[in-house]
Amino acid sequence: MLPQVTFRGMSPSTEIMEVVCRKTRKLSEIAPLLRGCHVVIEASPRGSQRPSSYRVSVQLSNGSEAGRRNAHASDTHLHAALRDAFRATRRQLEQRERHSRSGALLAEVERHAGARG
Hints:
By secondary structure, the protein is α+β, with helices and mostly antiparallel strands. About 50% of the residues lie in helices and about 25% in strands.
């Protein structure tokens, strides 16, 4: 899955695109059913050449409204903001995966208990 990347307040960067693609590939290893990833990288204006901070938003979807995930992070360093936003997204995916596994396990236990009684 190739991510859609939007740059706001800054020029697009090949290096940043490569970082985003690498991080997105790692997310798709956890959740192979992901269909879309939109990353917004926003530089806040400071009035000089360099922005004072960066805000990164990661939006994932698997084709259904229930499968949408959003994470945001801000930092004065772009790579730190990217790292934090993707870590938050990864935690959400891992938590969702744990919940779906525990729900499946509970349904299995209930099915077996119903078959006995």
